[in-house]
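Researcher: Here's the sequence for the chain we discussed earlier.
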Amino acid sequence: MNSQVDWKLRWENELDLADHLELADFFRQTYGPTGTFNAKPFIDARSWAGARPELRAIGYDANGVAAHMGLLRRFIRVGSTDVLVAELGLYGVRRDLEGLGISHSIHAVLPVLQQLAVPFAFGTVRPQLHKHIERFGRYSPLTIIKDIRVRSTLREARVDKAPVRLEDALVIVLPVGKSMSDWPAGSTIDRNGPEL
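Model: Thanks. This is the structure I predict for it:
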């Protein structure tokens, strides 16, 4: 990696229009190569896809936005137990910096997670990213949970589509204020809202 990345933690209400325009462009360029549908939410100055984050870890280098991770505190239901989490999502890294890795953004937000006193950070990734996440898990207390169904609401109601999405995803959990032994058992997770 040839680029020096400077991480900035920004609360959502600190971002101005220029920030949202820059981030929307970053996401269109980052997610677009994985399919036009993935870049579609980031029209104009929209810099979020589903739920809007409350805090962002944004990595900048000489070329602008290099990487991004969003954070949103919410209650999810694991099995029949409500759990306060900081959902991590809206992750992206510029193509020329793909070696930057998710670990850099997690390390950028870890002090904030501890300051927010959430028991767990939580996120989901596509099963195709299993090997990538597994490598990262060797160097952190991150736990990967398989065989979980995750239910989320769609970000927009449509008459031609069910209002919820049920998917098989890899669930990642990072203990922050509690230990992993405190994570409840369950084969389903309800976000009770859209994915971050």
